[in-house]
Amino acid sequence: MFFTECSGTDSEDPSRTFADTLKWQTENLVVRSLRSGAETVVLWNMALDDKGGPHFGLCGERCNGVVQVAGGKAEKNAEFYVLGHVSKFMDRGAHRIASTSQGPGGLQNVTFENPDGERVSVVVNAADAPRTFSVVVNAADAPRTFSVVVNAADAPRTFSVTESGRSLAYELPAGAVATFTWPGAPTD
């Protein structure tokens, strides 16, 4: 299954377009579609002019491409970074491995294993407050199953990955997107 033909638009408050696009597209196009079995995410408009064209409608007044071209220069839009969180770290042949994730508007992730065993997790905090969470390898199901544990307290929350005695902790601010990589468990 392929997820295709989506294009960004401006936010109601244009000063929020980059942040809103980064969060919405990562949550909905990357995480949720890949968690639901999509094998790829394709954005419809790669390069548009500074007026958001050309387009055939359905974007309101303007569409946003992956890059905006004006005066011979290309400016990277949020769509560029959304795709970069996946394409820079996941290798051809990577496969999704199970992980738990909060629902829409919460802390969400999609996790992959590259052919060399490296793990890649794209995480978006779609909540209105910083979130702390951990990724724990379930020993009984290792090396393919991960649980995301979210600290439900009102205090800022941290991200951590623990596997084979190694760990990483991270606090993900509201609206932020991060990609984490770590080597697979030793095989000896």
Provide tags for this entry.
single chain; eight-stranded mixed beta sheet; 13 strands; globular; alpha/beta; 188 residues
Record the SSE blueprint.
Elements: E1 2-6, H1 17-35, E2 40-43, E3 47-49, E4 67-70, E5 73-76, H2 78-87, E6 95-99, E7 107-113, E8 119-125, E9 131-137, E10 145-150, E11 158-163, E12 166-172, E13 177-182
Parallel strand pairs: 1-2, 3-4, 6-10, 9-11
Antiparallel strand pairs: 4-5, 6-7, 7-8, 8-13, 9-10, 9-12, 11-12
By helix and strand content, what is the structural category? alpha/beta
The beta-strand count equals 13
Instruction: Please give the count of helices.
Output: 2
- Described by the principal axes of the CA atoms, the overall outline is globular
Description:
With 188 residues, the chain is α/β, with parallel strands linked by helices. Helices cover 15% and strands 38% of the residues. It contains two helices and 13 strands. The chain has helices spanning 17-35, 78-87; strands spanning 2-6, 40-43, 47-49, 67-70, 73-76, 95-99, 107-113, 119-125, 131-137, 145-150, 158-163, 166-172, 177-182. A hairpin with a 2-residue loop joins strand 4 (67-70) and strand 5. Helix 1 (17-35) runs parallel beside helix 2 (78-87).
What is the gist of this entry?
The protein is α/β, with parallel strands linked by helices and 188 residues long.
